[in-house]
Design brief:
Length: 155
């Protein structure tokens, strides 16, 4: 199967279609990632990743799945369309820095993509602006979640 790309996703106009296109439906970080925590952390701390990540956010105007009406007011996650694996990171594969393989998402959209559960998209709708209403972690947790594949919050 040809791998999914950002350009192909962009041809789908709606948020729902883009979500359906990108969803993975597998468990998070099971066989693909194992417990390579150090490797993963080193990657997310790297300048190279930070540069690419900023580029993606600018390109997508900070919008969920790059849909213009879905501006993100909570921390922005940058999702790897073709998920990262330990080998990709270890080998410094260009796929993990490829703009065609990256897209902005919210925390909830990100989880939904990885779990393939559209129920998690209840919050993903065009934005009505209320302060903090899209920040479920504004209640004491650190903002990092074990469900996360490790995508750090936008800093
Ligand atoms: Zn992801």
């Amino acid at each position: 199967m040809a791998r999914k790309t950002y350009s192909e996703m962009l041809e789908l106009p709606t948020f729902e279609e883009r979500y359906e296109y990108l969803k993975l439906g597998g468990g998070f970080g099971t066989a693909t990632y194992g417990s390579s925590r150090y490797l993963k952390q080193r990657f997310y701390m790297s300048n190279e990743w930070h540069d690419v990540r900023n580029e993606v956010i600018v390109r997508d105007c900070g919008c969920d799945l790059a849909v213009p009406e879905y501006e993100i007011f909570s921390p922005i996650y940058v999702h790897h369309i073709q998920p990262m694996t330990r080998d990709l990171v270890y080998n410094h594969d260009r796929l993990i820095f490829d703009l065609e393989n990256l897209v902005c998402v919210t925390y909830n959209t990100h989880k939904a993509i990885h779990y393939g559960d559209a129920m998690m998209l209840m919050d993903a709708k065009p934005v009505e602006r209320f302060p903090n209403d899209t920040c479920p972690w504004k209640g004491g947790t650190s903002g990092r979640n074990e469900f996360d594949t490790g995508h750090p919050r936008f800093r």
